[in-house]
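Margin note: ligand = zinc ion.
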Amino acid sequence: MPDRSHEASRFTAFAESCLDRRAELRDRPDALAEALAHPEARVMVFTGDLVVAKRTDTTLEVTFTRRRADELGSDEAEAILLGWTDRDVPWIAVPVRRDGDEPTWIGVEMLGLRALLVEPTLDPAHMGPVAGARSLLDWHRRHGFCAQCGAPTRPKHAGWRRTCKSCEAEHFPRVDPVTIMLVTHRGHCLLGRQPRFAPGMYTCLAGFVEPGETVEDGVRREVREEAGIRVGAVRYHASQPWPFPSSLMIGCYAEATSQDIVVDGEELEDCRWFSRDDLARMVEKEHPEGFWLPIAGTLSRRLIDDWLAQS
Ligand SMILES: [Zn+2]
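Resulting structure:
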């Protein structure tokens, strides 16, 4: 494995993976069948957006034997080959069958991926594969028909593409880039909140990158739109897969060149400058106005914590 110890990305949730993807093997026609036939193959089962998991006192297992996955109702026609562990054991993700017999659900639970952010018993190195599988299965579910001609599509390349049965157009899984930025100015940083947030939580501004735009320009546009602040230099810091359904969060530091906030009132209901002392109190949940920060593991919190540590 390459040395990733200097990369801030690896300290975000969904970033760690126990798997080597070996993407070069996916175009072998029998890659998926061989992986499924491996005597130790591990199978991750999803029902909709929920991953099926088995809990013990100390662990949360998100993979099963192929036989157990079959009992749970796995649909191997829609399987995805996720990669191999360092012991050469393949991991495969499958959705449950949407028709047929009721699957047997005993001794397992179904978890949304946001719940995994606060799940202490799941191995962090299993978070990346779960996130990738969730994004890919969601993409397959929504791309059963060709965007070019409307005919049905079928999975190919061990679940990493779909091909149209009629015009043979190839369709690739989407990743949607989202910028998330900590805007700083004279020792303060800019945080905002949307109406849907839990009361008191403030976080970094964020927004989708638009077609024809660089990450840096996306940061500048988004901050201007939402907070009326002009931004100069933009510097990349870390990224995070965000499987809701398939974003890539691109975390940046951005230097403001203006100070007066004009909240757009649509995306944000409030936005303000916070001092380092404010942030330290928010970390401890001791802010006098009851303000607090996103949980550890989020890229927003990574940007804030690393900025505080730089002081
Ligand atoms: Zn087509």
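Residues 146, 148-149, 151, 164, 166-167, 169 surround zinc ion (CB under 6 Å).
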